[in-house]
Amino acid sequence: MNTPRRIALRALALALSVAGWPLAGLAFANVALGEPVENADLPTLDGGRAALLSRKALANVFIFFRPEQDHSLATLKAMADCEREFADKPVHWVAVVSSRFDPQGVREFVREAGIRMPVLVDQGDELYGRLGVRLHPVIGIADGQLKLLAYEPFHKINYCDRIRGRIRYALHEIDLAELDRIDNPPKALFPNEIKGAVTTRHVKMGEAFLRTKQFGKAVDEARHILEREPDHAPAHVLLGRALAAQGHCAEARASYDHALALDPKNAAAADGKQRCVGP
User: Cα(105)–Cα(103) distance, rounded to whole angstroms?
Assistant: First the structure.
């Protein structure tokens, strides 16, 4: 039955998926985005007890990790930085570890990571089973109503940025559009992607073919450029020089004329046209 609540949850899941947030079924098999996460009070590594979630917080961050796993260590180190950054904000942090691991080994692992948050010990993996946790490490984020906003498996790139963005969204500091910009930053351009760099490379390659008397390949390089940039004067000059070297002066002069029409002061085109005599 499509109750208003179900419709709202589906709309939320759709909005979050558009913003780059993963949909349920990958990390938490038993809780969908927008659904409430059942709270739990668990023993902590230091002998106390702590809650998985808090209604006093606007953002609840809970981290499932496995000791002696490189990605888990990298995750906890990244979250130690995030934890310090949001120290004065209403964010509730916990880490969760299975009870099957040696406590002393877990303490050393946590000490190396530098986190200050409580480490909950999941007795008999009851919490793992209840949520359907499938991946290690994985970070869940719930709001103050304990509804699951997002979960993030390990990312090698921009991991802390992604979690930071989701926390800020839960804190109402940014909207979905800004979150999408965090998830999809402008791609850094490699040199061969910078405007003009590819064309320049083809021109230089064509000139190299001219020097080694591979005139047909020089023609191919020039035409390759002109297919994409028909108003590129240096490519018309390159084509003219290659055609002239093959003895096709009429075609070469036409190429030089194109270059001069685009760049009347192009000395190479003027010189090439003057030198190219014959049919």
Answer: 5
